[in-house]
Write a structure and sequence with these properties.
This protein is an all-beta fold. The chain has one helix spanning 268-274; strands at residues 6-7, 11-12, 21-25, 49-50, 53-54, 59-60, 70-88, 99-105, 117-118, 123-124, 130-134, 141-149, 153-154, 156-163, 176-177, 186-190, 214-215, 225-243, 254-260, 279-286, 292-296, 304-313, 317-318, 320-327. It is built from one helix and 24 strands. Strand 4 and strand 5 form a beta hairpin. The longest helix has 7 residues, at 268-274. It starts with 5 loop residues before the first strand and ends with a strand.
Length: 328
């Protein structure tokens, strides 16, 4: 029987780490639109005011005294397909929009005559709430427009989907980080992420603090923690990096890495269950606090893989995982 695990499949295409940015908005009198795509969870500062009013962690427009509605246009750093959206109104209660709608398009930056297509209907928005909606299109998009009716505030916008990998071109002789979110890799499942989001493992660059990595709760029984990554591209793997930056008294004792390759659509429960029998690429290896372990593929065989399983013993925090190799 498979123990409880956490499923992860979608990438937040609104994350600025991918190059996503705000390019225009109708108004941002009370709070700037750029806060909409902050990857951190929204916060509330009690009793804090700026020159225009109450400080709010999100995008907030002034009260509209004429016809029309407010909007913000976002350029995606990586073109992709959006499956679900989250219009998060955390801490906006009484000043949230009454309705909201998302539209999208594919364009090479010229939006003057672009035809916007609906991602969502015009939906009623709840205050202080994660308003999830399913996307109405499966098309690849480069830009998204959030319309709010008639005005108000939104804390965060999450655009959950996948990068369109068909637009990626790689040299077969060039080593790349196959596990990078920028190259289309995604977390499939993990055992636990009590203290830190497991998606942080695949982010580019060094982590900025302990909260910018993956950290599990303290294990009080037998077993170990793990995460399964589906690589954006199958590749020949030749090296790994496992970082524990900022994890000093809570880093794992050791780690190991397994791999698997399949182009079939596999049930996730079966994938997890069978992962114990995957090929061992790195046998159990000691970790150090606040450091970066670079290791060549110990059990290297010239095979391509598109699934990686990182096991940590018994628990703890990892800041980044790098999987270097060549795309087929």
């Amino acid at each position: 029987m498979i123990k409880k695990y956490i499923l992860k499949k979608l990438t937040d295409l609104a994350n600025p780490i991918l190059g996503t940015k705000i390019i225009s908005c109708s108004d941002e009198f009370f709070a700037p639109a750029k806060r909409l795509i902050n990857p951190l969870e929204p916060i509330y500062k009690d009793g804090i005011f700026d020159n225009n009013g109450k400080w709010m962690d999100g995008w907030e427009t002034r009260r509209k005294r004429s016809k029309g509605y407010d909007f913000v246009i976002i350029k995606l750093g990586k073109p992709g397909k959006i499956n679900n959206v989250n219009i998060d109104t955390s801490f906006f209660n009484g000043n949230q929009p009454e309705y909201a709608q998302l539209e999208g398009c594919y364009s090479n930056n010229n939006l003057k005559n672009v035809k916007w297509i609906k991602l969502t209907k015009k939906n009623k928005i709840k205050p202080n709430f994660n308003n999830f909606f399913k996307s109405l299109t499966s098309k690849t998009l480069t830009h998204v427009r959030l319309n709010i009716f008639p005005d108000g505030g939104v804390a965060r916008l999450r655009l959950l989907g996948s990068i369109d990998l068909s637009l990626h071109k790689f040299s077969k002789n060039r080593n790349i980080d196959l596990a990078s979110i920028i190259n289309g890799s995604q977390i499939i499942a993990c055992s636990d992420e009590h203290f830190g989001n497991v998606n942080n493992l695949l982010l580019p660059g060094k982590s900025i603090n302990m909260g910018n990595g993956w950290e599990t709760r303290r294990r009080r029984g037998k077993g170990f923690d793990w995460v399964i990554v589906k690589l954006g591209f199958s590749g020949y793997i030749n090296a790994f990096e496992v970082g524990t930056h900022f994890f000093k008294g809570n880093y794992p004792d050791s780690f190991s890495i397994q791999a698997f390759n399949s182009n079939k659509n596999i049930n996730i429960s079966s994938l997890i269950k069978n992962s114990n029998d995957w090929v061992n690429l790195v046998d159990k290896h000691k970790l150090k606090p606040n450091s970066n372990i670079k290791i060549k593929n110990i059990n290297y065989t010239k095979k391509n893989y598109n699934y990686i399983k990182l096991n940590i013993y018994p628990d703890g925090g990892i800041s980044r995982l790098r999987v270097f190799g060549k795309v087929l």
